[in-house]
Write a structure and sequence with these properties.
InterPro entries: NTF2-like_dom_sf. With about 250 residues, the chain is of the alpha+beta class. The protein folds into two domains: about 110 residues, Nuclear Transport Factor 2, Chain: A (Roll); about 110 residues, Roll (Nuclear Transport Factor 2, Chain: A), CATH 3.10.450.50. Helix content is about 20%, strand content about 35%. It contains four helices and ten strands; from the N terminus they run αβαββββαβαββββ. The strands form two sheets. The protein has a five-stranded mixed beta sheet, with helices on one face. A five-stranded mixed beta sheet has the order 6-10-9-8-7, covered by helices on one side. A hairpin with a 2-residue loop joins strand 7 and strand 8. The longest helix has 17 residues.
Length: about 250
């Protein structure tokens, strides 16, 4: 099995209760970055034990690989409906590290009628992976961290931009309207640094740290890139809990 197939099987086992995919985890080296879960295989098992029987649902919509990393985009019912990005790091064919970001599934589609998970699912243009990763990184650095809004247009094909954030409509016009509305409410969204950029072909996931409305926040942004422009965007935004509430000492990133 490929590493991607192993991850998809492991995630599905949360729903099915199949114990076989747990063997894809290295029990002696598994480092957990979900701060609500204890470290190691024991922490993962404790969370599964706490789930109400038969309640879990797992639908992995996208799964991609970048070297030793696999990253997925999944629709969960896991202590309630959520959308999540997961990242797994492999060593010698076994999972040794896990990061994720989870957000409660919105009850309604966004202003353009899109959900947080619909849209294309298969990667293309594998030969452009590194080029596309560089573009996504530069976009986050220039626009989301640097605030160089005068350069915004160069990253998009006019207003042809598909948006899956639950609060924002399609196009640069939709993005501008959302940012204006946030500003009027006194809500600031600040990206401070990038921790990871992973890609497979035309899909790139950027993992960043910052704040939203003054709350320490993790931003996971998935971009689909076409013809050297950002064509589509999905994201999951999660508040980082105070240090006293962490169930492991590994940090979010």
């Amino acid at each position: 099995m490929s590493n991607t197939e192993k991850v998809v099987a492991l995630l599905k086992s949360i729903e099915t209760g199949d114990t076989a995919p747990v063997a894809y985890i290295n029990p002696a080296r598994y480092t957990q970055h979900n701060l609500a879960v204890g470290d190691g295989l024991a922490g993962f098992g404790a969370v599964l034990q706490a789930l109400p029987p038969g309640s879990a649902r797992v639908n992995t919509v996208r799964a991609f690989a970048d070297g030793d990393y696999v990253f997925t985009h999944t629709e969960y019912n896991f202590f309630g409906p959520k959308i999540g990005f997961d990242i797994f790091r492999f060593d010698n064919g076994q999972i040794v590290e896990h990061w994720d970001n989870l957000q409660v599934t919105p009850e309604a589609p966004n202003p353009s009628g899109r959900s947080m998970i619909d849209g294309p699912t298969q990667s293309e243009a594998l030969e452009k992976t590194e080029e596309n990763k560089a573009l996504a990184r530069q976009f986050v650095e220039d626009i989301l961290i640097g605030g160089k809004m005068a350069q915004l247009q160069q990253y998009f094909d006019g207003d042809h931009y598909i948006q899956h954030n639950p609060q924002i409509a399609d196009g640069l016009s939709g993005l501008g309207a959302a940012l204006e509305a946030m500003a009027k409410q006194g809500i600031q969204m600040e990206y401070d640094r990038i921790h990871k950029v992973l890609g497979e072909g035309n899909f790139v996931l950027a993992v960043s740290e910052g704040s939203l409305g003054g709350t320490h926040t993790a931003f996971y942004d998935l971009f689909r890139i076409a013809d050297a422009r950002i064509a589509e965007h999905w994201d999951v935004i999660e508040a980082i809990p105070p240090r006293a509430e962490w169930k492991n000492d590994n940090g979010k990133f």
